[in-house]
User: Fold Ribosomal RNA large subunit methyltransferase H from Neobacillus bataviensis LMG 21833.
Amino acid sequence: MNISIITVGKLKEKYLKQGIEEYLKRLTAYAKVDVIEVADEKAPEELSVLEMLQVKQKEGERILAKISQDTYVIALAIQGKLASSEELADSLDKLATYGKSKIAFVIGGSLGLSEDVLKRSNEELSFSRMTFPHQLMRLILVEQIYRAFRINRGEPYHK
Assistant:
């Protein structure tokens, strides 16, 4: 299975980088996982609704340029479906069973994802109704992908 994590912006925090690198290293036993960063759109702190849409649109275009036609896309979105770790593991297992070997998880920038990215996605997944920094979501996501593979292999994991 080839998994891409497409995300907006550069990761600067050393502690997050270290955590992500650790889980990516562990994941090599299960799947090929790549993190693809696209540039975030520079914007002032205070934005009008139109400016927010423009920022999301530009970031969305960069995201969509990284997704091939045969990729199954899971967009991380607050309004998405909530799933347990076991349900995520089951979803990944079913995707593999039905020949979906290219999967992309998409994490938007600080303003979220554009409508075009949401339309392109095959499903929307929410980790919580709470808002998390998109940089932290990278770490949470790679840990949950790792956990999903452990669950599917019947290997121990922390509950």
User: Anything to note?
Assistant: Residues 2-152 form a domain with the Alpha/beta knot fold (CATH 3.40.1280.10). The chain has one domain: 2-152. Strands lie at 2-8, 32-38, 72-82, 102-107, 123-126.
